[in-house]
Amino acid sequence: MIQQKKWQVFLSHLVIITALLAGTAFAGMGHIAPNVATDFSRTVSSPHIAATTFVHPLASVIGNVTLEGQIMVSPGASVRGDEGQPIFVGEAANIQDGVV
């Protein structure tokens, strides 16, 4: 019984530490950011995101991206307009977990 309790405490601490480390690593990157100028895409653009759009903190929106309307960008999704072509997502869209 004591061994099981110690194991539960250990696992709960492990979950907390993992979440903190993931948040710290991700915080430095920024989840909504302009693209970086490259040889094939020299124009730097920032995303345009409507007030009615929700971008999860573990999702990323980078570069020439327009999210217009009631949109949800789920955790782990990546919307990248950083290779010279714009991306437009319209009304009532749902970008699911892990979509790139």
Question: Would you summarize the structure shown here?
Answer:
The protein has 100 residues and is α/β, with parallel strands linked by helices. It contains 1 helix and 9 strands.
Description:
A 3-stranded parallel beta sheet has the order 1-4-7, with no helix packed on it. The chain has a 3-stranded parallel beta sheet with strand order 2-5-8, with no helix packed on it. The chain has a 3-stranded parallel beta sheet with strand order 3-6-9, with no helix packed on it. The model is unreliable at 24-29 (pLDDT under 50). The longest helix has 28 residues, at 2-29. 19% of the residues are buried. The chain has one helix at residues 2-29, and strands at residues 32-33, 48-49, 54-55, 60-63, 65-67, 72-73, 78-81, 87-89, 94-95. By secondary structure, it is α/β, with parallel strands linked by helices. It contains 1 helix and 9 strands. It folds into 2 domains: 1-30; 31-100, no CATH class.
Summarize the SSE layout with pairings:
Elements: H1 2-29, E1 32-33, E2 48-49, E3 54-55, E4 60-63, E5 65-67, E6 72-73, E7 78-81, E8 87-89, E9 94-95
Parallel strand pairs: 1-4, 2-5, 3-6, 4-7, 5-8, 6-9
Keywords, separated by commas or semicolons:
alpha/beta, 28% helix
